[in-house]
Every structure is written in C-alpha cells, then in structure tokens.
Amino acid sequence: MVYYINFGSKKILYTLLYTNRKTLGITVNPEMEVIVKAPINTHVGTIEEKIRKRAPWIIKQQNYFLTFHPKPNQKKYVTGESHFYLGRQYRIEVIESDKNEVSYKGRFIQIATKNKSNAKQLLNDWYRQKAKQKFDEIATPIIEKFKKYNVEPKGIYIQEMKTRWGSCTPNGKIILNPELIKTPKGCLEYVIIHELCHLVHLNHNQKFFDLQAKECPMWEKWKRKLEEFG
C-alpha cells in the first residue's frame, strides 16, 4: 500500500510492506521511491514517527538519485537550435538533400535529409552511433582499473531510460543512457565509475562512497554538472 506523510512543505510518499523482520527499515531506490518494511502489527503511528525522523535523510537520498534523472527533451530540431555533444554546444543546420546523413564541422552539426521532419530521428541515430563508440572507448581503461577489486562487468550496454543516467544489473551488466553522449566526458566517467562501484558495494553505504571518491576524486563536480545539464 502507498501512504504519505507531510514534512514541512514536502509530501513524502512511501510504500509500506509488512514482513517477518524484527526491525523497521526504510530504503530509497534509484527511482526515488521510498520503501518501508515493518514488522507485522507495527502501529501506523510508530511507522510515521520513524519516517518523520528519517525525513531529512530520505529527501537527501531522493535529491541524490535525481542527479541520475535526465531532463525532458523539448527540442524542435530546426536550424539554429543548440545541441550538445560531449559537453560542447553546437548549432544544428538542417538542409534538404538527396541523402540522409549527419556530420559535424567546427561548432555546427549538419543534418542532411530528404525530409526535414526526419531531423530528430537522424540526429538521435547519430548520437546513438557515437555513444556506442565513445562509451566503450571511455569505459575500457576504467574497467581495467577496477579489476584490482576483482570485479569486471559483463559488458557495457546502451538503453534509453527516462529517469536514469545509468544502472547496474544484478548479473553485472552496466547500462548507460545514450543521452550521456551529450554530457562532458567527466560526467560519463563519473557515471561509469558509480556503476562499477556497485559491483564492489551493492548499496550506497559509506564504503561505496569512499570507493567512489577514491576512483573519482572530483565526483561531486561531475555530479553537479549532471544536475545542471540540459
């Protein structure tokens, strides 16, 4: 069941699960959902009191995961509009042509197309092609470094995700959002390192953050960049 409490001006929604556990536990998942697991017959007042006590931590965790949520794309894909590639800003130029192709020169990305309404799809296909190339290129040396922790992902995969920059599956697959190709290289490295750290430490505990800081000393800078990006 989904419930909520008011904490100041914020409404904290949470899913309540009664289990055979002895203590009450609160977790926040990457989708920013709050999951409360409570012993059977725990009074609702006790649960709400615990959530209010933990509310600052819950909000902090939700804000942290928000950095992995790409902003909605509201582009029109017309000549003169600005788009990003590896953190650099480019102007797009949409031209009519007998062939469909995308290329970039200087600070311009040119989209040649038989039908200008195809500009969005052509540019997205180009981004995805670049993502396949660059993600592997950037990830390879980082993966080599993580072998000293006796971990290695089963592969780097690209998948469109509306609410995540990246994720790590239980069987060791690193999944990256193709939208990352628009962000600076440092942001991409940060997300890769973040997901690789999950192969060493599953949860966001202190050991996880210590390892992330060791392997990506400027992670807070790149985290802020992701928050600002778009």
From TrEMBL:
CDD domains linked: M48_yhfN_like
The record's listing under Gene3D superfamilies reads: Metalloproteases ('zincins'), catalytic domain (3.30.2010.10)
Cite the YgjP-like metallopeptidase domain residue spans from the record.
22-228
Name a Pfam family for this protein. Answer: YgjP-like
InterPro entries xref list: UTP_pyrophosphatase-like, YgjP-like_metallopeptidase
Q: What is this protein called?
A: YgjP-like metallopeptidase domain-containing protein
The protein's organism comes out as Flavobacterium lacus
